[in-house]
């Protein structure tokens, strides 16, 4: 069995993407890792080249923003085509896998290697928001998606690279892994989040009000969101320690919930209770 990893990367330093942590989180179980590096205004290419592994294979492309949000799926598909494994493990540059889940995922890929009825493996999503100790489960925030697909040329990324589909429009056959996808795209300093939102508008993801372009992004009251009690992937340690809002939030959580058993057990737990209204 051969496993390919892949991602796309552009302006990851400028917008503070944890792309190194992302790649390195699954590199141990990958036989190769394809990084599609876009034309950047920072040192993204040099950063990827700094990874000391002969598994890394870099391709380069110029992003065509006339494609709007679909530029992401187009670039993802270019990375997919360069992969040579039986399975392709795709991560976006702000998604990280916990090291404790790697043995489970490797066993599942091996188990279903010859079972053509399994084309994709699905994850539960942790959308961390404002703090590394808060996550969103309200409507409008998708909670599961495929990130490992059979590399048979019949599956493609689509739209804004949110997920995958069969090219013949037939339903994608999948198995749930029970593992988590740690999404850190919304845990940024407020000034960085503002710039990322402006960039998202230029691509075509969102439409902002004038005030949103001028002012720093506000996460508002984090107490609205569930607490994450568990551990994070080891590679994220430095970012978590240096994130001001997270450390303030953690101090308040520890003070208020010092008695909570999940705090002491470090349970990697996600509530299944959806919030019935969308929180802006």
Polypeptide structure, described:
The chain is an alpha/beta fold and 280 residues long. It is built from nine helices and eleven strands. It has helices at 19-26, 44-49, 70-81, 102-111, 190-203, 210-214, 237-242, 244-256, 261-265, and strands at residues 3-9, 32-38, 56-61, 87-90, 95-96, 120-129, 131-136, 144-150, 155-158, 163-166, 174-186. Strands 1, 2, 3, 4, 5, 6, 7, 8 and 11 form a nine-stranded mixed sheet that branches. The protein is globular, with a radius of gyration of 19 Å. The model has no long low-confidence stretch (mean pLDDT 94).
Overall helicity? 25-40%
C-alpha termini separation: 44 Å
Which residues form runs of ≥5 with pLDDT under 50? Answer: none
Q: What fraction strand?
A: 25-35%
Q: Outline of this structure?
A:
This protein has 280 residues and is α/β, with parallel strands linked by helices. Helices cover 28% and strands 25% of the residues. It has helices spanning 19-26, 44-49, 70-81, 102-111, 190-203, 210-214, 237-242, 244-256, 261-265; strands at residues 3-9, 32-38, 56-61, 87-90, 95-96, 120-129, 131-136, 144-150, 155-158, 163-166, 174-186.
Q: What layout of secondary structure does this protein have?
A:
Elements (H helix, E strand, L loop, with lengths): L2 E7 L9 H8 L5 E7 L5 H6 L6 E6 L8 H12 L5 E4 L4 E2 L5 H10 L8 E10 L1 E6 L7 E7 L4 E4 L4 E4 L7 E13 L3 H14 L6 H5 L22 H6 L1 H13 L4 H5 L15
Parallel strand pairs: 1-2, 1-4, 2-3, 6-11
Antiparallel strand pairs: 4-8, 5-11, 6-7, 6-8, 9-10
């Amino acid at each position: 069995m051969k496993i390919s990893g892949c991602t796309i990367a552009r302006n990851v330093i400028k917008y503070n993407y944890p792309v190194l942590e992302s790649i390195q989180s699954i590199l141990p179980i990958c036989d190769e890792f394809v990084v599609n590096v876009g034309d950047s205004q920072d040192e993204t290419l040099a950063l990827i080249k700094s990874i000391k592994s002969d598994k890394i294979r870099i391709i380069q492309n110029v992003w065509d923003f006339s494609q709007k949000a679909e530029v992401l799926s187009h670039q993802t598909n270019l990375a997919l085509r360069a992969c040579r494994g039986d399975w392709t493990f795709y991560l976006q540059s702000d998604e990280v896998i916990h090291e404790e889940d790697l043995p489970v995922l490797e066993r599942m890929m091996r188990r279903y290697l010859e079972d053509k009825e399994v084309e994709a493996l699905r994850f539960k999503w942790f959308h961390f928001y404002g703090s590394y100790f808060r996550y969103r489960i309200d409507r409008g925030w998708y909670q599961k998606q495929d990130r490992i697909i059979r590399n048979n040329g019949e599956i493609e990324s689509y739209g804004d690279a949110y997920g995958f589909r069969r090219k013949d429009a037939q339903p994608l056959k999948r198995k749930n892994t029970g593992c988590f996808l740690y999404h850190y795209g919304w845990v940024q300093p407020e000034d960085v989040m503002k710039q990322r939102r402006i960039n998202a508008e230029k691509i075509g993801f969102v439409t902002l009000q004038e005030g949103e372009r001028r002012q720093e992004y506000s996460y508002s009251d984090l107490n609205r969101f569930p607490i994450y009690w568990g551990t994070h992937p080891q590679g994220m340690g430095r970012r978590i320690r240096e994130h001001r809002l997270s450390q303030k939030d953690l101090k308040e959580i520890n003070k208020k919930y010092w008695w909570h058993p999940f705090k002491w057990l470090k349970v990697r737990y996600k509530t299944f209770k959806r919030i019935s209204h969308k929180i802006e």
